[in-house]
Give the backbone structure.
Amino acid sequence: MTKKTWVPPTLACLFGISFWGLTPSQAQQPETLQLEDTAQFTATQSECTFFGATRERFLPKTSRFSESVLGRVTRLVSQGSTAGAVASRERPFTSSALGNGNLIDKYIFQDLQANNITPAGKTTDLEFVRRVTLDLTGRIPTPDAVTQFTQSTDPNKRANLVDQLLAKPEWVDKWTMFLGDLYKNTAANVQVTIRPEGRNAFYKYIHDSLAANKPYNQIASEIIGAQGSNSFDQTNGQINYFPLGIVGGGPVQDIFDSQTANIADHFLGLAHVNCLLCHNGSGHLTTLSLWGSRATRTQAWQLSAFLSHTWTRSITTPQDPVNAKARYNY
């Protein structure tokens, strides 16, 4: 895209770019906008309803009876060249198209075939570059990155793009935020006060683990098996995970149950263990979980027994080496 070129509708739809950023001069004279670079993108996208037959209802009107300013811009682009229009998706996408080296897809497609399920078609280059950039870095790709990727004829360009994105600091930042949310690092617990120092220590642990390419099974083991006496310790931030599972009032088994439910939810994807700690799954989880419908309260207690080896105590003496007056609960 040239510096003065208005973003084509296809890019705006794909990358979440708002039209409302047009300058007054652009809004008054949409016919003079430069469209040199729009030929490489299709003017219509079936996946984007914004540019469908009823698109005018989304756009501000210049008057009650006239065509909207942005509607005219869309029409101008629609009348432009479509020589470089994006090819439609290939359907169906069969397992024979997978090739070698994709371990996850191998098992996914085996199950799809076993259940006679037709998978969706392979993404276009425009779809892929947007999705993978958002997934890995939490940001939309730049126009230059999109152009470079779509024009590349390298058969391995998708795998190469993934490697490039995984090497970016943005990947570390995005997934630090994701895992921080998953582990409830900033969640509120009315019975436990986690000070900013402890929160920051846990954030640092997650960030540094990702930056060091630490295996996820090691991260899980270090968090679940954390030991220490100072939650402000910036070299042992993972110890801040367990306090958010503490509940007051007793008995102590309630703490073990709460921490077990958190681990099952955050690390095993089993959101129903919390239900099983109170009653059998049969009749309660039948429509929600095949596994849970067959599990019993006794089995949940047996799982919770592992946490009986965990002891969490309240600290009332200053532990922050920077702020000697700081006090915290855990």
